[in-house]
Design goal:
Blueprint: H1 2-22, E1 26-34, E2 37-46, H2 49-54, E3 66-76, E4 89-94, E5 100-104, E6 121-128, H3 131-135, E7 142-144
Parallel strand pairs: 2-3
Antiparallel strand pairs: 1-2, 1-7, 3-6, 4-5, 4-6
Length: 155
């Protein structure tokens, strides 16, 4: 009888853990302003340790105008990598005011190589590999999103 009770408790805890991980991330619009014009994306927000650690792992594809924004809350020098990531990504390292500081282009799926800007940043935006070049997105362009405090609040 004790075994059945323990198994039931373990099964319930597993279901709770799975449900917590399965909670959908917040999805918001994000705009990048370039010399060529503005480009809008729909991004998932990774802002807790579990979401930041998991990122875009095990995804086979992503829509052309989709991405994931890693919000670190406080600036830090993040060490990103591509473990269990199946698609190539562009990683845009973004300062507290929304300025793109560096872009790691066409990262290699599955690579354990550390990818870093070498400076503290507030966030990293991941887009499909090659998308930044396709749209003319470059360092010093501006990312418009509420986490950077640079949006029009009267909308």
């Amino acid at each position: 009888m004790r075994y059945i009770h323990s198994a039931a408790v373990a099964l319930a805890l597993s279901a709770i853990s799975l449900a917590a991980h399965a909670d959908p991330m917040q999805v918001t619009p994000l705009t990048i302003e370039t010399d060529e014009g503005s480009h809008t994306f729909t991004v998932e927000i990774a802002d807790d340790q579990e979401e930041i650690s998991y990122g875009l792992m095990n995804r086979e594809s992503m829509d052309a105008d989709a991405g994931m924004l890693f919000d670190f809350a406080q600036p830090r020098d993040p060490a990103m990598y591509m473990k269990n990531t199946l698609i190539s990504l562009d990683m845009l390292f973004i300062s507290t005011d929304g300025t793109i500081e560096m872009i790691a282009r066409n990262t290699v799926p599955g690579s354990l190589r550390t990818i870093s800007a070498g400076i503290p940043v507030k966030a990293v935006l991941e887009l499909n590999g090659g998308r930044a070049a396709e749209l003319g997105i470059e360092p010093m362009d501006t990312v418009i999103h509420p986490i950077f405090g640079n949006t029009d609040t009267e909308e």
